[in-house]
Each structure stands twice: as C-alpha cells, then as structure tokens.
What we know:
Layout: E1 24-28, E2 33-34, E3 42-47, E4 53-57, E5 62-67, E6 72-79, E7 85-86, E8 89-94, E9 100-104, E10 109-113, E11 119-124, E12 135-136, E13 142-146, E14 160-166, E15 175-181, E16 207-210, E17 216-221, E18 224-229, E19 236-237, H1 250-262, E20 265-267, E21 275-277, H2 283-292, E22 307-309, E23 315-318, E24 328-332, E25 338-344, E26 348-353, E27 358-363, E28 369-374
Parallel strand pairs: 1-25, 6-7
Antiparallel strand pairs: 2-28, 3-4, 4-5, 5-6, 8-9, 9-10, 10-11, 12-13, 13-14, 14-15, 16-17, 17-18, 18-19, 20-21, 22-23, 23-24, 24-25, 26-27, 27-28
Amino acid sequence: MLIRLRFLPTLALSALWPIPASAQLVKLDQPTATLAEQFSFVRGARELSSGQVILVDWSENRVVIADFATNSVRRLMREGPGPQEVRLPSGLVRLRGDTTLLYDDGNNRSHLLAPDGRSLRTIVADVPGRGGIRGLDATGAFVYAIPSWSEGPKALPDDSVRIVRWNPQQSGEPQVVTVVQGTRYRKDRSPAMQPRLPMVGFASQDSWLIAPNGAVAVVRATPYHVEFLSPGQARVVGPSYAASTRAVTATDKLRFVREFADGSAVSGRGPGGGMGHAPKISDAEVRRMAGTAEWAERFPPFDASAVLSGADGRIWVGAVVLPDVAPRYDVLDRSGTRVMQVELRPGRRLIHVGARGVYAVAEDDDGIQTIERYRVP
C-alpha cells in the first residue's frame, strides 16, 4: 500500500541528493500551458494520444477531460454509485492505447475507461489488493499487490508484500511476480480508542509500477536502485545510488499527520454509510497523533508515492518535498541508470509524464490547485 498524500514530505535538496557528472540538472520553471480551471485535490492524470488529459479531483468527486489547446475542461462522470458515476476517485492508470483504469474507492471498484472517457466495465475490488491494479504486464495480465494484512498466517515478515499478476480470462490463483517492501506498520496494531497513524511515519519502502512495455519496474529503497521484470526475460538491475537524508524533526511529524488526515477516507462518512472524506481535525488532535505515532529517525531515500513512469519508459523518482524548497526527481532510463535530475518550482508536484508534456499540480497558499504542462526534457 502506498500512502497518497497531497505533499507527502519528501527530500529535495541537491546537497542531500548529489548529482553525478553524467546526470545533468534540468529545471522546469516555465510551463508551456496552464489550465484556468481550479481544483481542490488532484490525485491522478492521464494524457491521451489526442493531447487531452483526464484528471480526477478526489475532494470534489470529479472526473474531467482537459484540453490545453482550448484551455477548457469537460466533466466525464457524475458523483454516485451508478455505471457512469464515481465516488472518491483516487487515481488513473495508463493501460494500452488510450484505455485508462480509474480508481473508484468510494464504490470499492475500478472503471475501465474508453478513450472518450466512458466507463466500459467495472472491476469490483472483492479481492484484497485488486482495487489497486497498476496496469497490464507484457502478457496482458493485471498486476497488483496483495496487502499484508489480508494474508493472515501467510503474511511475509517485515511488512513485505507480494506483487501478483492476474488474468480474468484464465482460471487459477494469481502468479507471484516479485516481493517488495511495503508500508511499514506500527508494532502496536491492537485496536485503539482514538484515531492514530497506522504506519511508521517516514519509514522507507519500495515503490513499483508498470512501464509502457509491460515490464514491472521496482524502485528499491535499500539500496536505492531500479529493477525491471518481464515474463520470460532476465531481470534488469540498475546501479545503486547513495541518498543521504536528514533527520526527521517535530515540524516534519506535524506536517505528515496533517497531510495524512486531510488525504484519508473513512468508512461511515459516505452515502449509505460507505467510504467518505475524513473530517477535518484540530491542531491539538494533530499534536496528539504525532505524539502517539511511531517515526523513522531519518527521511527515506525517496517518496514511494512520487514515482512515475514516463511514456518513453523512463522512471521518475521524487525525493521528499519540503515547504518552500524546489522538488527534485531522479530520471532513470530503461537500464536503471540515472540520466538526469529534474527540478520544479516550489509548491509543485508531478502528477503525470506523457509523450506531449510533463504535468504538475501547483497549489497556492489557500489550497487551490491548478495544472501546469511543461516540455518533456
């Protein structure tokens, strides 16, 4: 499980992520286009071959298709439980061609979207992990992670999780692709009388996704490197890179708790008692949760929720974003070699890397978000 936050604290200082001589620094400081439309919490984007972009706003239960050429947006799905409706849309996954997978967390399912944004079918998340399908591998099978909490006695040690492939057209159990370090949960998992962080804050974990060629790309945290796995082919393991990180401070902990609370969904808050947005919590509650949580001593080598695959197959790995500091991303090629680092202006995070542009969410001091498109370096 990845913890998706608005600005999950990630490291972004060049002194902490030294740039090797072979990797140039590219600054994306001038967008080629900016949508006039405003959003509240964009959690997913998907560029189509037409140049239009599908966007999901988790806070507003909104799925739209944006046209940068005309600076306009058109709503694709209504809010609700029906066939062309969505609740708590939390992300988009690029499938083959212009087909897209939309996470519909509030309805416990995913939608397969046609190129025009219509829902062709839904996949019910009736099996643990199946609501987090990351894409299609080279065999055409869906790939997802089995959460450790669902495995019972079969759970792997140290919160590791199995990545599996599943073909709905074939019978039999899903096949294991690899094992990754998942979210590290607190030692005390017994029920609590008050809300608390379920994970160890700032603990390092692996990240993974499906590259455009169907390979499973795994970004390992220890040591920091990228691996590519394709059925019937040898595993490609890239070089390891050092990533010095700073100590976690009390301010970091408060920010982590606030962003986790603002980006969480809870049962019983939605229509009919389903999933809904978590209520806002007070500063006092934030301090209490921070004081009762378990924390890593230092920042992780990268932000596991800030890893993206470009349309060209390069992997973009984001470091921990600090307020008022320019976010940085490592860009690694299909051999796992770091070829450049990309820097954004402060207050931004990457949401998608397509063939026509790099898309970033810009958030102002009032929490209003806009979408910017930059050239692909």
